[in-house]
Amino acid sequence: MDTFLLIAITGLGLGSLYFLLASGLSLIFGLMRVLSFAHGAFLTVSAYVAWSIMRTVGDGASTGRLVLAIATAVLAGGVLAFGTEVLIIRPLKGRTLEQLMATVGLGTAIVALLTGFWGPDERNVPLPSWVTGTTHVFGAAIPTNRFLLMIGSVIVLVAIRAFLSYTRYGLVIRAGVENSEMVSALGINVNRSFTLVFTVGGLLAGLGGALAACYYHGVNPMVGDQTMLYAFIVVIIGGLGSIGGAAIAAAALGLLQSLANYYISAGLGDVLAVVLLAAVLLLRPQGLLGRKERLA
């Protein structure tokens, strides 16, 4: 029982990391109909920013320095996303293929730059002792960083749903998803909403990068691309544009990978993730919640 609980919570922690990236992708697709392949690179850059802060600022791996690293990483992800939307996505509005290829090129270029500057090797991230320690749950020693990721993803889920349901911009975004032309005709600046949503997606990628550094205890140039693959699987399984669907799919995928890799065969969980994706595309192409809701 102790082992099962450890593997299950580890899977939920991994699923939480997927959700932090997938939630931004779902928001962006829901309003803008853009699939940004640069978001994995945003996560990677943010992870390196967090690593840089943790190893250079202050004395020791303190909690205060961790908070500063997370905040700086989130800001870095938002700035990257803002610049990408203004300089690349907006000029290519309505040209879906060009937008897709531009984000692929941007993501590839960022990874190449990071590799050239810091090399391909893993860089260890100094962390406070409570992050690298364990918490006992029903006799099972669970790494505390799993709970950090889970708490972060729950906060993000609640915040996004509240933003979409109870704020003016959230209502504009929901209306823009249904009919952006009508919203524009009412005098509302839809382009500003596009920029806001893309920037929020970058902020979420930044948070994911900082927490990925905590989860893996290290960073490397491929951490974003590795997470990005499963984040896209989560988005498709959950339903394009559905935040609730992304949350359910992320938890299910993380659990499936961890349990299958431990109890059956190492690496089988990754294969089953692709099998699950294929099954959903065959049986319910719109995803788990694609028909019921678009953004929340």
Describe how the helices and strands are arranged.
Elements: H1 2-32, H2 39-56, H3 63-89, H4 96-118, E1 123-124, H5 129-132, E2 134-137, E3 140-143, H6 144-166, H7 168-185, H8 190-216, E4 218-219, H9 223-238, H10 243-263, H11 268-283
Antiparallel strand pairs: 1-4, 2-3
**Can you summarize the main beta sheet?**
2 strands, antiparallel
> Helix coverage percent of residues?
over 70%
Please state how the strands of the largest beta sheet are arranged side by side.
Answer: 1-4
Number of helices: 11
Order of helices and strands, N to C? HHHHEHEEHHHEHHH
- Percent strand equals under 5%
Poorly predicted regions are 292-296
Radius of gyration: 19 Å
Q: Any idea what the shape is? A: globular
N-to-C span: 35 Å
Overall residue-averaged pLDDT value: 86
Total beta-strand segments? 4
| Class inferred from helices and paired strands | mainly alpha
**Total domain count:** 1
